[in-house]
Amino acid sequence: MKPISVLIFVLGLFVAVCGSGCSSSVTMPASEANFQLFVDVTPKNAVIIVDDAAMGSAQNTAEVPLMLQAGTRRIAIMCEGYYTFRTTLEYIQPGETYTLKTTLIASEF
After folding, report:
1. Phi-psi category of residue 11: left, alpha or beta, with phi > 0 → left and psi -120 to 50 → alpha
2. Per-residue 3-state assignment (H helix, E strand, C coil) for the chain
3. pTM exceeding the 0.70 threshold for the entire prediction
4. How many CB atoms lie within 10 A of CB 55?
5. Which of 68, 85, 86, 107 is 20 to 30 A away from residue 52, measured at CA?
C-alpha cells in the first residue's frame, strides 16, 4: 500500500466515524433498532449495567441475549469482592449480535 493510499484510508475512516454521530431522518420500528448482546461473565452473580441502568445478573446472559437499542452503549459488570469491568460498545448497528466474555478479577479490598 502506498503512503497516499494509507492517508486516504485513514481520512475515510475518520469521516465515517465522525459522521456516524449525525442524526437521521429515518425512523425504525423499535424491534428493528435493536442489537443482541450475549454476556458470558464469571462470576455468574455479577450485575450487568448498561448506560447506568441495571439489567440484572449475568446468570443466563451467555445463552439468552440482552436486547439493546443500537448506538453507543456503556457497559459495566460489577460484583462484590471483584474489580468492576467497564467497556464501551461504539457504533453498533441494528440487527448486529455481539458477545462480551470476561472474568472479573478478585479485589483484595
Report:
1. alpha
2. CCHHHHHHHHHHHHHHHHHCCCCCCCCCCCCCCEEEEEEEEECCCCEEEECCEEEEECCCCCCCCEEEECEEEEEEEECCCECCEEEEEEEECCCCEEEEEEECCECCC
3. no
4. 16
5. 107
Measuring CA to CA, how many Å separate 94 from each of 8, 24, 104, 105?
A: 28, 14, 29, 32
Break the chain into its structural domains and give their ranges: 28-103
Grid coordinates representing 75 are: 457497559
Q: Is the pLDDT of residue 107 over 50?
A: yes
Question: What CATH code would you report for 28-103?
Answer: 2.60.40
User: What number of other Cβ atoms are within 10 A of residue 80's Cβ?
Assistant: 9
